[in-house]
Design a protein that fits this description.
Length: about 240
């Protein structure tokens, strides 16, 4: 797959979000895309997936089967998790979603309305629909955001499996969840310009601690929800 002089802007006379990108992607590769907020990462991923067309330049030899998991899965839909995945299976020609739902630990979510999902749980639905058709090109936008610890361990293994069967994986990831994969390629996007194979430095990762006070009766549910979303939530007794 090849990007040749690819540029993109949303409207005429606006600045280019992506500027003159040239890159090649090869079967069996896993690519980590980093960059500050607003650098154009999500736009580049949508261009790679074929969801957005370049303003200029061309993208050649995109694989026939593409899986795309967005940063924010659209939960404002009148479906349960099961109904949605069955629908996507029909769209994908009868692709099997059940093994992926099981592998991502979604058994307790199947009858839940999409509108009621936490961010991490919604992200699992997005990953399942992206993986069900055995994509030759898998695009993941911040795939580790909100995931529980078990799924965070599983996702790099899945990325490796896609690459091992000859697929291409591209993931924007400020949490460096893929860093331990051998032969991981690094792309950095700065102000719309792509630096391919730039070393991952972690300079765009920020961690904060937030203290929350709430009624004791609400504490168990709050801690469960935060931990499901992948946050390190702990109870702290307030000093009297």
């Amino acid at each position: 797959m090849r990007l040749s002089s690819v540029s993109f802007r949303y409207r005429k006379r606006e600045h280019f979000v992506i500027t003159d990108v040239d890159a090649r992607l090869f079967p069996g590769e896993v690519i980590e895309l980093t960059g500050t907020n607003g650098a154009g990462k999500s736009t580049l991923l949508r261009l790679l997936a074929g969801l957005t067309r370049p303003t200029s330049g061309v993208i050649l030899d995109r694989p026939a089967v593409v899986g795309f998991a967005p940063d924010r899965f659209p939960t404002a839909q009148p479906f349960t998790v099961t109904t949605y995945l069955r629908h996507m299976s029909r769209v994908r020609g009868g692709a099997r979603w059940e093994p992926w739902a099981e592998r991502l630990g979604m058994g307790h979510l199947m009858n839940t309305s999409l509108r009621d999902l936490s961010k991490g749980s919604a992200h699992k639905v997005g990953l399942t629909q992206a993986l069900m058709a055995d994509p030759q090109l898998l695009i993941l936008d911040e795939p580790f955001a909100g995931l529980d610890a078990d799924t965070r361990k599983t996702l790099p293994v899945i990325a490796s499996e896609v690459a091992d069967r000859g697929g291409i994986v591209v993931a924007s990831d400020h949490q460096s969840g893929l860093r331990d994969l051998p032969a991981l390629r690094h792309w950095t996007l700065r102000d719309g310009h792509l630096d391919a194979d730039a070393p991952a430095t972690g300079w765009d990762t920020e961690h904060v601690t937030v203290a929350v006070t709430l009624p004791a009766a609400d504490l168990p549910r709050f801690l469960t929800r935060m931990r499901e979303d992948g946050y390190g939530a702990h109870e702290i007794e307030e000093a009297v």
